[in-house]
Specification:
Elements (H helix, E strand, L loop, with lengths): L2 E5 L5 H10 L3 E5 L7 H5 L3 E2 L3 H6 L3 E4 L4 H9 L4 H4 L5 E4 L5 H12 L4 E4 L2 E2 L1 H7 L2 E7 L1 H6 L1 H7 E8 L3 H29 L4 H10 L5 H12 L8 H18 L4 H15 L11 H8 L26 E16 L2 E14 L4 E5 L8 E5 L9 E11 L2 E9 L3 H16 L1
Parallel strand pairs: 1-2, 1-4, 2-3, 4-5, 5-6, 8-9
Antiparallel strand pairs: 6-8, 7-8, 10-11, 10-13, 11-12, 12-15, 13-14, 14-15
Helix pairs in contact: 1-7, 10-12, 10-13, 10-14, 10-15, 11-12, 13-14
């Protein structure tokens, strides 16, 4: 049988290597972080001291590493893969990395008279354990066929996609859908929870209806049970969405849903959930709705306010000076604009309340300029309510077009202002 080198013993790599050992392959393992090799050594693996050593005797070298930077370190470091790979070997990179890096690796490994396949996977941790992963393969098709037995030990489906980099492109496109689906599932669960719907009952509807998805099957119960043990981490999801964003910029594809999902997972990362499962994004939504997405206890449905009867949210007293820019349409191709001083009086879930002496009308749009120390760009608000007190007009403004990361920045600024 072929001798195998395996580098990267994380959530996915360790069970993949274990399946190769159980099949009877001779496997030499290496992991950048010490302490992850013991269980595999007990199954018969030999531990190497460097990527170079793991590669030196391998007929087939498999890598499963977290990101581009780590892959570059493993392959191009002083004792890296390229220093040890032998002529005629096959290198299979199952990491999710940029297509540009996959193509560079393919060229540099060919210069060592070896072959390279980019073969990222889908299926998450359960499929890695069960040996039911799907491989998306780019590179030389003959090399794939020569090593199909290796792939079939770790997975149940191998899809050949074309030349070097094709596997990486497919994985980023795939994970774009995963991120969007996961965010959509969580958002729907948050809507149902805030409206008083039992979470398990609503999940049944999702799984049986047009909203059914693999994410609903994999993550629905985890969200309800607050089980954020890692199948695929939030940090890795964000990393993949960022890589996909770079790819789509390069090839000229507009991706508004990708950018929205990326912003959401960035909020999750900023909130400290990066090392938890990607379903931990639900905790961001739980903060927004002020409750857990979970099973309702008996009696909780009785008297639940629901969306139509929701109580007015408590407002936070503020007194922050702002500038307002108001633009009015005069005729075709012509606008009239003016500026006015105002005060940010308070904020709620719905938006901001601005006070000013300038009379305005409902449904007008104003540009709100916060003080420079906020670090925030001008925000667009639509006036939805007007109250007059003495000589001041109090305008309730809905914010529009404000990216999620800027909403978080606004919240941090207001919290800081209140604490001073």
């Amino acid at each position: 049988m072929k001798t195998i080198g395996f580098i990267g013993l994380g959530v996915m790599g360790a069970p993949m290597a274990a399946n190769l050992l159980r099949k009877g392959y001779t496997v030499t393992i290496y992991n950048r972080t010490p302490g992850k090799a013991e269980e595999l050594v007990s199954l018969g693996a030999r531990a190497a001291d460097s990527p170079m050593e793991a590669a030196r005797s391998a007929d087939v070298l498999i890598t499963m590493i977290s990101n581009d930077q780590a892959v570059e370190e493993v392959y191009y470091g002083e004792k890296g893969v390229l220093a040890g790979i032998k002529p005629g070997a096959a290198v299979i990179d199952c990491s999710t990395v940029s297509p540009a890096l996959s193509r560079r690796l393919a060229g540099d490994i060919r210069d060592k008279y070896a072959q390279f396949l980019d073969a990222p996977v889908t299926g998450s941790k359960p499929a890695a354990i069960d040996g039911t992963l799907l491989f998306m393969v780019g590179g030389d098709k003959k090399t794939l066929e020569e090593n199909r037995d290796i792939f079939e030990t770790m997975g149940k489906q191998i899809v050949y996609l074309g030349g070097s980099g094709a596997g990486s492109i497919a994985k980023l496109a795939h994970n774009t859908i995963v991120g969007i689906n996961a965010a959509g599932l969580i958002e729907g669960l948050a809507i149902a929870a805030k409206g008083g719907i039992d979470a398990s009952a609503f999940l049944q509807i999702v799984q049986a209806g047009g909203a059914a998805s693999k994410q609903a099957d994999l993550k629905g119960r985890k969200i309800i049970d607050h089980d954020f043990s890692v199948q695929f981490s939030l940090a890795l999801m964000l990393k993949d969405l960022k890589l996909s964003s770079v790819l789509t910029d390069t090839i000229g594809v507009s991706t508004p849903m990708l950018e929205a999902a990326k912003s959401l997972f960035q909020l999750g990362q900023n909130a400290g959930y990066g090392e938890l499962d990607l379903s931990a994004l639900a905790q961001v939504y739980e903060e927004w709705i002020g409750m857990r997405i979970s099973e309702l206890q008996p009696g909780e449905l009785e008297g639940h306010s629901g969306a139509a009867d929701r109580r007015k949210q408590a407002r936070l007293p503020l007194n922050i000076p702002v500038m307002l820019s108001i633009y009015q349409w005069l005729q075709e191709g012509s606008f009239s604009g003016q500026s006015a001083e105002g005060v940010l009086r308070d904020v709620s879930e719905e938006g901001l309340q601005i006070a000013s002496t300038l009379p305005l009308a409902v449904d007008m749009f104003v540009i709100i300029h916060l003080p420079p120390d906020s670090g925030l760009p001008p925000m667009t608000g639509r006036i939805i309510r007007i109250d007059k007190e003495d000589d001041m007009f109090h305008y309730g403004c809905l914010l529009s077009g404000l990216p999620l990361f800027q909403r978080l920045q606004l919240k941090e600024y207001l919290d800081k202002h209140l604490s001073e």
